[in-house]
Structure formats: structure tokens, C-alpha cells
């Protein structure tokens, strides 16, 4: 009764979340142990038409009240594992072993119980929104579950207040930013009072500020309400310190599950590729000789740096590259989606150069995707003009699945360049794309987010464009794959190609862009080389810059902090 509200005798109703808090309190304080909500026992899974299982003999439990972060490389099986825990979205294929929910096989759960108690938030903010207004979306799940109208009103009101949604409660979905939509998805799941909340890379399409707000809400749900949370996320700078345990996936196996500081030390000791995903303070402290009690948060990292003896060393920055030949120029563009709607782009101007990579950053809803589509010629501005010196322009949206037309990657690649021999040659020569080889017979819709992104990028490259416009190209990629992609970017720009990426990935932009631009209020408000761009920003800046500001000024990457702190450049 507590989950759906209980009459306290005075006409008031205790919320399910409040009862979760009370239940946890009385359980732990009467000397009990946490109860496993999920138990995965020697579980393996293989997709149809594949020889290699996607999951191999996985065993672990998810305890009540735990925040469990599942980490691993793109394609290691994280998304496949999460989907096994929600019967309605479990992929089709061959299963062995058991997935138990409160001691019962998850596939035997009543549909209503599975829908109410196992909440799932997808990667894309638009993937699970089904109505056109915020108020309707919050009530939709409860209405379908047959909850009485008066209880729906109470639970929706409570959740809207908890999530700070009152200010946009009556808005249309189309008027919300990406960050607001994802927060609405979370609230729409939480209003069902789930026992466990599962999230698949929920911040991958959010700007840094929106992502921070979303992660802060997850922390609040876990710490204040005892909400059990299992999630995957490549953005681990903020999440890693919040987790109770981190599970490491590798080639379909759960390698180990450890508390955060133990996991950080283990990965760094092994020099594992995924140590690149660790919080910047831990990586810097390890490189500077610390081996125990590694700092994980920005506060701990700044304290560690401040305690080091001053090196008296200042970084020497390389000169920015000379401007390249103009290949596309946008001047004073104005664009709106409807004649009565407000302008999305206002006096927008931008110049693209051969052999250069430009990163365009900005908040969700700032107009970055619209600007990319106008540059590509997909959307026409109603004022201003775009001069193009080439018609070989490729555009990849942030929904990479849209570029695929067949049920096998191999067939799609052949369609793109009309020659299997040609695309196989390109595949074999590229370290970044070589890992697509085992996936060639797979249906694109069965791929992980990172695998799908990589496959879509390869199909775009097969068209041999001069200008490549990419919307969130690092979405779903692990740090090792990002390094390979960065190397591919450097190769393409050396060939004279022009790259423009709209991105929320600040760390990637700092390493691989020649220039960074900030889009705000419909126009470009700043555009500089990464060193200057990130050292002058407060929030849109790298973790290394935040950690070292005022202590080792001028450092943008972790490597620069390490060199400066150790005096390695002297």
C-alpha cells in the first residue's frame, strides 16, 4: 500500500517515495542486510546470426539502495545487459543462465509489475516521449496502469515539485530543451515509484550544464530517497565518485565490480585502456606519484594540487595554425522554422577552412543542429547567404540509425560506394573502423550506441566528402575509441578535409579541434583556438582546467597539468 500511497487517517497521503525512505530506514536500523533486487546468474546471450555471444557467463547482484555504475568500452555488452533486465525491451536472441528479480525469473514477471517496478531511461531524450505536453507525459504511465485520477494528480504534483518542473509543466514538448526533455523522462519514470531505476547513457546528448543537473538529480534520488540505480555512462567525471560500486565490462564479460577508489587504482595499476575514462583528478594524482586514496572529485583534486611544492614552471603553448583556404562561408544568416516562430539563428556568421576542424559548442536548444543543417543546405535561411566552393558535403545527424537502409552493415556499406572491395580496403587501413569487421552481418539496429555511431561515420566517409558536418560524433564512444577517432580526424584534416562537429564533448574538442566556437542566442559569440577558448570559460571548460585554475594557470589537458606540476618541460 505504501508504494501507491496510504491514507494516514487525516485525509493526507504519504507518497511512495517517502515510504521507500521509511522502509530503508527501519530495515537497516533493525540490523538487516541489503536485499538483492536483481541477481544475474551465469548469464550468456547471443544475437541472431552471430557466432560470438554478446554476453558471456555474467554473474552479479544489484543490492537495494545501491548506485551501480556499469563501465566498459563501446560494444562490450553494457546496453545488451541492461535491456535484459526490462522484459518489454529485452533483445531477441539465445539466452543461457538466469536473470532473477526479487528471486523470480524476470521473464515471468507480470507485465504490470515489470512496468511499474523496473524503470528505464534511454540514451536519447526523444526515445521514450509519447505525448505532446509535459503534463500529459507525467501522467501517461499512471493512466495506462489504471491508477485512480485523484492519485495521479497527487503523484504528478509531488514529482513536478521534486524535479522543479512547475515552471514548464504546461508547456508543449517541442518547446523544451534536450536537458529538460531528459529530466522529464526521468520524472515520468519516477512518478511510477519504481523499485529500480536503469539508465543507458542518459547524459550523452546533454550539454555540460544540463548533464550536471541530471547527474545531481540522480544523486539526490539515491542519497535522499534510497533509490536503487543501475546505469551506464561514458561521462564518468561526475558519476564515478557517486557510485557505490563500478562494474567493468570487457568483451561481453563482467570483469570485476569494486568501490570507486579501488577500481580507479586497479585500472591505473593495470594501465587498462579504460583508465582513460577515470576522473581527471585520479589520473593526474597517479601520474604524479600518488598510489593510495586517489582523489576523485574536483575538490579533492584541487586540494592535492595545492599541496604540491610549486614547480615555478609555466607552460609553453604552440602557435595556432595559420588560417586555411576558405571552403564554405556563412554570412549574416537568419532562420526560423515557421514564419510566426522566433528566429533560431540570428545574424549567424561562420567561415570553414580546408584542413581544419571546428568544434561548435553551446547549450541544449541553442540552435547548433539547426546551424549544421543550414550549412549543409538541408534548411534554407530566409536571410543571408552561404557560399560553398564544393558540393561534396556530408552531414551525419545525432541519430546515426537514420543513415542505414538494409538489415546488414555489409549491404549498407556496399550501397554507399558501390564496391565491396573498395570499402573493405578502407576498413582494413583504419584502426578506428577495423573493429566493425565482426559486425558486418549484424542488423544496424542491434548494435550498441557506440558501434552504431562508428558504423555511421564509416558510411559517411565512404562518400569521400570535402566537408564533413557531424552532430555529436563522439556520442556513445568510450575514451579509447575517442582517441582513435581523434587520430582519424587528424588524418582527414591532413588530407585537406574540413570537419565541423557540433558537440558537448569538451575534452575531445580541447584535444582535436583547431578552433572552438560558442553558439548563443542564435549567433557565434566567441571563436578561438582551444587554449584560449577553454581557459577563459568557467563552465564550458575541461576538467583539468577546473582543477588547476589559480594553481597552475594555463593548463587545458591533464597532460599539461602533469607537465606543469612536475616541471617536465624544464
Tally of helical runs: 19
Percent of residues in helices: 25-40%
Please state the overall shape, judged from the principal axes of the Cα atoms.
Answer: globular
Structural class estimated from helices and strands = alpha/beta
What oligomeric state best describes the polypeptide chains here? single chain
Largest beta sheet: strand ordering: 8-9-10-5-11-12
Low-confidence stretches: 1-33
Describe the overall structure.
- With 570 residues, this protein is an alpha/beta fold.
- It is built from 19 helices and 21 strands.
- The chain has helices at residues 16-29, 78-84, 111-117, 134-144, 149-162, 178-190, 208-225, 260-270, 280-287, 298-307, 368-376, 409-417, 420-429, 449-461, 479-494, 506-512, 530-535, 543-548, 558-566, and strands at residues 6-7, 13-14, 36-46, 55-63, 67-72, 94-101, 104-105, 118-121, 196-200, 228-232, 245-250, 253-258, 326-335, 345-353, 357-361, 383-388, 393-396, 467-471, 498-502, 515-520, 523-528.
- Strands 8-9-10-5-11-12 form a 6-stranded mixed beta sheet, sandwiched between helices.
- Strand 6 and strand 7 form a beta hairpin.
- Helix 4 runs parallel beside helix 6 and helix 9 (280-287) runs parallel beside helix 10 (298-307).
- The longest helix has 18 residues, at 208-225.
- It is globular.
Map the helices and strands.
Blueprint (H helix, E strand, L loop, with lengths): L5 E2 L5 E2 L1 H14 L6 E11 L8 E9 L3 E6 L5 H7 L9 E8 L2 E2 L5 H7 E4 L12 H11 L4 H14 L15 H13 L5 E5 L7 H18 L2 E5 L12 E6 L2 E6 L1 H11 L9 H8 L10 H10 L18 E10 L9 E9 L3 E5 L6 H9 L6 E6 L4 E4 L12 H9 L2 H10 L19 H13 L5 E5 L7 H16 L3 E5 L3 H7 L2 E6 L2 E6 L1 H6 L7 H6 L9 H9 L4
